[in-house]
Amino acid sequence: MAAAGITLYGSELSGHTHRVELMLRALDLPYRFVSSPAQARRTAEFLSLNPLGQVPVLQDGDLILADSNAILVYLAKRHGADQNWLPDDPVGAALVQRWLSIAAGEVANGPNMARLIVALGRPGDHGKATEVTDRLLRFMEQHLAGRTYLAAAHRTIADLACYSYVAHAPEGGIALEPYPSVNAWLRRIEKIPGFKPMPASPIAQ
Ligand SMILES: N[C@@H](CCC(=O)N[C@@H](CS)C(=O)NCC(=O)O)C(=O)O
Questions:
Q1: Which of 17, 28, 110, 166 sits between 20 and 30 A of 102, alpha carbons compared?
Q2: Percent of the chain with pLDDT strictly greater than 70
Q3: How far is Cα 66 from Cα 77, in angstroms, rounded to an integer?
Q4: Coil, strand, or helix at residue 50?
C-alpha cells in the first residue's frame, strides 16, 4: 500500500537534509522526520531507500527520492509550481542549475568539508577545504554585491541549496565577517517563511 504523506529521512546536523527541510517548510507541507544516523544508514532497510547510504531521502506517497538537490527540484515542480522556485525558461533554469552544481561541488567540498573535519571530527584535508571555501566565498561576495538572490531576482531553490553550509562555515573555522554581501544574503534567506536554523554542531556549541 502506498505510504500516505511525506516522510523525510535525514539527520539534524546535515546541511543536505536542512536545505530540504527549509523547502518543505517554505511550502508549508506537513512531513514526518525520521532521524537516520550513520548506523541506521547502513541497514538493509535504509539501503533499499538509497543504495548510496546517504541522507536525505524523501518519500512522497509511492515516490522514493534521494539527493537533496533532486528533492528540491521535485518539491519545486510537484508542490510549488505556482511559486517560481525553479524558473521554466531556458536561461532561468540554467542559472539555478549552475548554483545547484556549486552546492554539490564547491559548497560540499568547501564549507561542508571544513565543518565535518573541525566540528564533527571526520578525517580530511582542512587546508584544502579552506582553500575551496575561500574561493567560493570570494565569488559569492562579488556575485551578490549587486544582487538580492543567487540565481534570479527572487528566491529560488539555488538559495536554499547553498544556504545551510555557508551559514555554518564558522563551525569549520572559516570566518564570514569579510563577506558583507554574503551575510546580507544569509539574513534574507532566514526571513523566508517557515525558516528554522540548523542546530550548531556539538563541538561548535
Ligand atoms: N549528493 C547528496 C549528498 C548527501 C550527503 O553527503 N549526505 C551525508 C550527510 S550530510 C551522508 O549521508 N553521508 C553518509 C555517507 O556518505 O556515507 C545529496 O545532495 O543529498
A1: 28
A2: 97
A3: 16
A4: coil
Ligand 1: residue whose CA is nearest its atom 16: 54
Query: Can you give the pTM of this predicted structure?
Result: 0.96
Amino acid sitting at position 23: M
Q: What is the pLDDT of residue 202?
A: 79
Q: Give the CA dihedral 156, 83, 196, 2, nearest 10 degrees.
A: -110
- For strand 6-10 and strand 31-35, is the pairing parallel, antiparallel, or unpaired? parallel
69 lines ligand 1 (CB under 6 A): yes
Gap from CA of 57 to ligand 1 centroid (Å): 10
38's grid cell:
550513520
**Dihedral sign computed on CA atoms, order 89, 27, 74, 150:** positive
The answer to whether the peptide bond before residue 56 is cis (omega within 30 degrees of 0) is yes
